[in-house]
Design a protein that fits this description.
By secondary structure, the chain is mainly beta. The protein is 0% helix and 55% strand.
Length: 115
């Protein structure tokens, strides 16, 4: 069973930065998709950023130019660098990965951006 563990969330003022990390329990090159989702209170979970096994990235329009997703195969980790944070970025951020056997989720990490 694949385990994903997020870290790096917290409270930050608007305009600040946070770096989220997701540690996987196995080699991440075996995933064909890795991404970060977030869920704000009262809203549906949405895809924020994604990266394919080939390195192609995709971002929600609301975070383009502010967030950057990357992987570190040596550390089996996924990272989300978040800059110029806004109050509307507040939510629980989840790490997700997919392969031919399933769809895996971390437990989530809270990000709160104060105005």
């Amino acid at each position: 069973q694949v385990q994903l563990v997020e870290s790096g969330g917290g409270l930050v003022q608007a305009g600040g930065s946070l770096r989220l990390s997701c540690a996987a329990s196995r080699n991440i090159f075996r995933f064909n998709f890795m991404g970060w989702y977030r869920q704000a209170p009262g809203k549906q979970r949405e895809l924020v950023a994604a990266i394919s096994s080939g390195g192609s990235t995709n971002y929600a329009n609301s975070v383009k130019g502010r967030f950057a997703i990357s992987t570190d195969n040596a550390k089996n980790s996924l990272t989300l660098q978040m800059n110029s944070l806004k109050p509307e970025d507040t939510g629980v951020y989840y790490c997700n990965s997919k392969d031919s056997n399933g769809d895996y989720w971390g437990q989530g990490t809270q990000v709160t951006v104060s105005s």
